[in-house]
Design brief:
Elements lengths: L5 H24 L6 H18 L4 H33 L1 H9 L9 H37 L9 H33 L5 H20 L2 H6 L12
């Protein structure tokens, strides 16, 4: 620890505090307030009820397949990024030598350089676990769609609610993986200065908060009339 300045440790603690705090806040608020997750869950419930009434459910299977492709892409990309970070971690001495040739870049100590890289590795490991768990849950959702009963059968409504809940859980983990990607961009600022790291982390969390609770997309998904929109007659 003697080779790691306290300012860098404070910046890392701020990063973890904002990340964990916002995740806990988003999970609590989604259950009781207006948010993208709550609004999309309502849409998923309507989707699953409509799915029960369809004889041919190829459309529903295609939707889940498209979601699986998106999550699989990010899971595969995360593995490539992790391989690159681990390779860079093994060549730390060479990387520091290259940094010394750049006049505008501050040269960190070997311990600080490795801490920064390990922090990025931790972010992408977290993202990989979230993406792979989202993949499994979307697979479960596809099985539920394939085994869905007819709407007149007993327990059909509860079945649709369970399928929607599984889809929402998968989406939540996918969103948390995407959140890790956004925060990894903030972590890149740590290579410039710890204050830049703290500032970009705060900015990323603010952008995520605005998108989740105050964006135009949320208003449209919720069916609200936005300022300047014409009310149909």
């Amino acid at each position: 620890m003697a080779f790691i300045p306290w300012s860098d440790l404070v910046a890392l603690a701020w990063f973890l505090f904002l990340w964990g705090g916002y995740t806990a806040y988003a999970d609590r608020r989604a259950r009781r307030a207006h948010s993208l997750r709550a609004v999309m869950h309502a849409h998923r419930e309507r989707w699953m009820r409509a799915m029960l009434a369809r004889e041919n459910r190829m459309v529903d299977a295609g939707i889940v397949g498209n979601l699986l492709q998106n999550v699989s892409f990010f899971a595969s990309t995360t593995l490539i990024i992790l391989a690159g970070l681990i390779t860079l971690l093994g060549a730390s001495d060479k990387a520091i030598v290259l940094l010394r040739e750049l006049q505008w870049a501050p040269v960190p100590t070997p311990a600080l350089w490795e801490l920064r890289l390990l922090a990025l590795v931790g972010v992408f490991v977290h993202a990989f676990f979230k993406f792979t768990w989202a993949l499994r849950q979307f697979n479960y959702c596809s099985v539920l769609i394939g085994a869905a009963p007819r709407p007149e059968e007993p327990g059909a409504r509860d079945y649709a609610l369970r399928a929607a809940a599984i889809a929402t859980c998968a989406s939540k983990d996918f969103n948390q993986g995407m959140r890790a990607y956004y925060l990894s961009l903030a972590a890149l600022a740590w290579f410039l200065h710890p204050i830049a790291f703290m500032a970009t982390t705060t900015l990323v969390i603010a952008v995520l908060y605005w998108r989740e609770y105050h964006s135009r997309a949320l208003g449209l998904l919720a069916g609200k009339n936005l300022p300047g929109a014409r009310t149909p007659r």
